[in-house]
Design goal:
It comes from Savagea serpentis. The protein is α/β, with parallel strands linked by helices and about 300 residues long. It contains ten helices and twelve strands.
């Protein structure tokens, strides 16, 4: 089934080229079925790249998905045009009276800031509170995962000695969990962050379950036992070259930028990196849409 997006969205042509099944809003309105309504709070600086990465995944399942893009009202992004935001994005006041089957909260390059010092933290906490009654399941990525663990479960982040960047092996803890159906016992996933969360606190929390972890990168996949929250500390949604682009950006700021581990062939940054995590990327998003959203959300919200 297709993903429904605005006809003029720039990502549309690239999605069509990649044979992702998409549908214009005009055609979707004629379908006599119940689509899933997904809210995407995009906190990443290069919003169009993130849109493409996530739409590619949401559009590769048997479910019809309507996506609403959300941005912060209390912080104006400097890396995307105001025209793009005005055309394709909503702010919270515009959607707070609606119900959504699922919501994705992306990462943000602000890990070293205290949560309360983030310019839009108060706005985000308002969204979190609203989500308790208006969203079936939240999928939180990287900084978004750390923010959710802090707000909902009182588990804070801590700074690492250096940047955690690279593609790391992860061990699956319980393959019977719905969200990891089809996963290999050991799988790869990219990370790119300066902070981490305490794995022991996650394991001991009565409302949480640790689903996958890495000896090098720490806790990776955490779910609430009621399936309302999924936290992913890395970036399965990343393209093959995303870490390369970030590395080159960091090198431009200074020569001491750490090279992503286990990423470039033969640790040679002149070689083209391979995507070794793609299958698990599609699995986690399709499993989330099916088991955490479609199977859990009411057909008609009260």
């Amino acid at each position: 089934m297709p993903i429904t997006i605005p006809k003029a969205l720039p990502a549309r042509e690239k999605l069509l080229q990649e044979k992702i099944f998409i549908m214009d809003e005009e055609r979707a309105f004629t379908q006599d079925i119940r689509p899933l309504n997904i809210l995407l709070l995009n906190l990443m600086p290069e919003k169009e790249k993130t849109e493409l990465q996530l739409l590619r995944l949401l559009g590769n399942t048997p479910l019809q998905v309507n996506v609403t893009f959300l941005t912060t009202a209390t912080y104006e992004s400097k890396n995307v045009s105001k025209t793009h935001l005005d055309t394709f994005y909503k702010v919270f006041d515009e959607i707070k009276d609606r119900k959504f089957d699922g919501m994705i909260i992306t990462g943000a390059p602000i890990e070293l800031m205290e949560f309360e010092d983030v310019q839009y933290w108060e706005e985000l906490t308002e969204i979190y509170e609203w989500s308790k009654t208006n969203v079936t399941s939240l999928f939180n990525i990287c900084w978004g995962a750390q923010a959710a663990l802090y707000y909902f479960y009182d588990i804070d982040k801590h700074e690492l000695p250096g940047k955690c960047t690279g593609v790391f092996d992860h061990t699956l803890i319980d393959p019977t969990e719905d969200i990891v159906r089809g996963f290999n016992d050991v799988f790869k996933a990219p990370h790119s962050r300066y902070t981490d969360v305490d794995e022991d606190k996650i394991r001991k929390h009565s409302e949480l379950k640790l689903l996958a972890t890495s000896a090098e990168a720490g806790a990776f996949l955490i779910a609430s036992k009621d399936k309302r929250h999924l936290m992913m500390t890395g970036h399965l949604e990343y393209d093959a070259t995303t870490l390369k682009d970030e590395y080159e950006r960091d090198l431009a700021k200074g020569p001491d930028a750490p090279m992503p581990k286990h990423y470039f062939p033969n640790d040679d940054p002149t070689q083209v990196p391979l995507n070794t995590w793609r299958s698990h990327t599609h699995l986690i998003f399709s499993n989330w849409l099916n088991y955490y959203v479609y199977q859990e959300t009411p057909y008609q919200w009260e």
